[in-house]
Amino acid sequence: MDSTPNHSANSLRPAPPRKLECSSSAGRAVWFFPESKEILDKSGFLSGQPKLKPVTHFQGRTAHPVFALGENEKYMWKACLRGGLLSKINRRTFFSLERFNKEMIVSDQLSRSGIAVANLIAFSVTRRGIGYHIDQFIRIEEDAISIRDLMLKQQLSPTTEQVRTIADLILQFHDFGFLHGDLNLMNIMINSDRAANPRALLVDLDPGAIPYNADRINNLKRLARSYAKIVAQGGCPLQSGDRYRFLYHAVGGSRELLKSALKECLSQLQESEHRR
């Protein structure tokens, strides 16, 4: 076991939040930070009409076009869709902008504080009846893969170094006082080159989905539930010792938090996983 990491829960302070700017025309409004306006204009996101041909598509709940605005700059134009049971009757329409506004502001705070999260450039709002259609414009990491796809599609376990890197990122995230509204293996990215130094990234923060009185242990419990689901679908499980190693570092080596995390997370896993 590695030496106990420093743990300073709630002692860190993120960069102060910034206000978003808004540009609106013809029933469509775009919210962004001022330094992104040139990118939004070049891509067509500001007007709502793409000015470039997509170089590829990113597969999520639908195929989202990806545009190149430079040699190493790629951006995804994401149509926001609902998940879960509600999506069967309402897939595209949202009735509040609060969660998208919060996600932009929180992502910006964390990014300026040195926390690796998705780089949200803007989101657009188009009135549809009594609700809205929402699109997001996101800078993407070209060599990144979700842990879900790593385990399920590539049939690979995260390396021990990747597990440690992800745990350290989640610890940082929690120590800044934030929780992830949907902490699952699809929303944790890692660089796909296993020989390179691991780089982890949190995406789809969705702070509006965090239930009342949630805490970091429940956030980790949600992640354990996601892991159990992927393994049940045939995903490659963690290597022996990495499940304990992950929780140890994700709680900063705190014995009290580790005890709670083990209890809550093990309750989500099959007996065969308790030894990992």
Number of helices: 7
Briefly note the structural class of the backbone. alpha+beta
Query: In the residues, how many domains can be counted?
Result: 2
Order of helices and strands: EEHEEEEHEEEHHEEHHH
Largest sheet: 8 strands, antiparallel
Indicate the CATH architecture of the largest domain: Orthogonal Bundle
CATH topology value of the largest domain: Transferase(Phosphotransferase), domain 1
Radius of gyration: 19 Å
What's the average pLDDT? 91
The parts where pLDDT drops under 50 for at least 5 residues are: 1-10
Please give the oligomerization state of what you see.
Answer: single chain
CATH class categorisation of the largest domain? Mainly Alpha
Describe the structure.
- By secondary structure, the protein is an alpha+beta fold.
- It folds into two domains: 99 residues, no CATH class; 130 residues, Orthogonal Bundle (Transferase(Phosphotransferase), domain 1), CATH 1.10.510.
- 30% of the residues lie in helices and 22% in strands.
- The chain has seven helices and eleven strands.
- The strands form two sheets. Strands 1, 2, 3, 4, 5, 6, 7 and 8 form an eight-stranded antiparallel beta sheet that branches. A three-stranded antiparallel beta sheet has the order 9-10-11.
- A hairpin with a 2-residue loop joins β4 and β5.
- It is globular.
- The protein starts with 20 loop residues before the first strand and ends in a 10-residue tail after the last helix.
